[in-house]
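Supplementary Methods, section 5.1.

A reviewer requested that the exact input to the structure prediction be made available. We therefore reproduce it here, unchanged from the version used in the analyses.
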Amino acid sequence: AEIQHLMEVDYAAYEHVYLGHAKQIDDSVIFNGHYRVEMFSDELWLKAERLLYGTDFGFAKDPATFIRSFIHEQTLYIEYERHGKGIEFHGNIVGGKGELEQFYDSIIESRRWPIKGDGSRPETISFIRGLGFNISAAEKWQGSVEDGITHLKGFKEIVIHPRCKMVIQEFGLYSYKRDRVTQEVLPLIIDKHNHTIDAIRYSLDGYIQRRGAVGLWARLGKS
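The structure derived from this sequence is encoded token-by-token as follows.
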């Protein structure tokens, strides 16, 4: 159903994600030229200083997302993803675990490493912490989304494992707005196709720095 939906709403993205075709250049796509999709060893993370886990809880029709990544030689490697809609705190008990606990246990090592989540949902963070996960709120500030984008663009490369289908899809679709008349790219971010990207930003809490007085275009990584 997910593949069929993508085919219907964005066939170019379907070709890119599922058929491996090169995506056409679009200067409104925020991460164009800043990432690639490539297989890498499941043991590569052992060369990194640490693992990074981030989660976006989703709301209403938005999916919850959970991402594992790491940094090695100035490259961000995104290696595991989980996502789902309508995940209940206690729903679908399997083996004594509720649906939410199953969700966070589905990515290996998640109980051993810190997890960063959306600070606007403190009750969810508190509940997940009570399940035994080391989760805390990522810091937010005015312009933190733009600063996070700038930080992500600052990596030498972003490499996405092919199994991370939703990450690949969102990196190819997350965009700036265009003027409807002139088609100029505007310094405004469309709040869509960003659920895995938000989780990745949260996982980098403490690495992403405020830019303060830096101009908006510079913060967006535009010239």
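The CA atoms of residues 1 and 7 lie 10 Å apart. These observations are discussed further in the main text.
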